[in-house]
Design brief:
The chain is an alpha/beta fold and about 220 residues long. The protein is built from ten helices and eight strands. It has helices at about 15-25, 30-45, 50-60, 85, 90-100, 100-115, 130, 145-160, 165-180, 205-215; strands spanning about 1-5, 25-30, 65-70, 70-75, 80, 120-125, 140-145, 195-200. The longest helix has 17 residues, at about 165-180. It binds cytidine-5'-monophosphate (C5P). Cytidine-5'-monophosphate binds near residues 32 and 95.
Length: about 220
Amino acid sequence: MIIAIDGPAGSGKSTVAKLVAKRLNYRYIDTGAMYRAVAWTAQKKGMGPADETAMAQIAGSLDIEFVPSADGQLVLVDGENAMAHLKNETVGRGAATVAAQKSVREILVAKQRQIGEAGNVVMDGRDIGTVVFPQADKKFFFIADADERGRRRYEELKSKNPNLDLKIIIEEVRQRDHEDRNRKISPLVMAEDALEVDTTGLSIEEVTNHVLKNINNL
Ligand code: C5P
């Protein structure tokens, strides 16, 4: 079984995908972390994310592993536990830049298919139901009000950086969505056979139960 959950930043997909995977005893794969890993590695090397040839080289040589852990999963980038480095908006913006590059997408999509082909996986991202696994058994497309998505991202990041400005985070989330929706290759778009879930005003538990109910009704 392959479950695809796509949607814009802050729509709740990673949180819910993780819980759904746990309840079903499936693997959870956060494909956004793979684009982030490329942007983060470039940043560490002092490179900007705009050079497609260099980014493709990084994407091709990086070893990205998803390892189940007590709180969901660890992301190991060349063996280093990288989640804390990947989850910030600078890396997020870099990820959106590298995600618009054809050769980077080809390399990461191939890795995602390889990871997912064993089945029993919940994979979240922007193009899982449309490009990575168009034959997925169940597809969800999460949406939510942009201000609420910005607020969720702010709450998530605030503990590590108390000086964050909510307005700036909302603006960054909007900007990243705009880029994801309008890029030429694999833009963020709902698959025709996906179920749209508006998570605005809903709790994590409500959304998780809704998704599980739909999967069980297959
Ligand atoms: O989901 P997350 O916010 O971690 O994704 C970071 C960025 O990676 C997104 O803004 C998007 O540009 C890109 N991405 C993508 N396709 C995916 C997952 C993420 O283009 N399947």
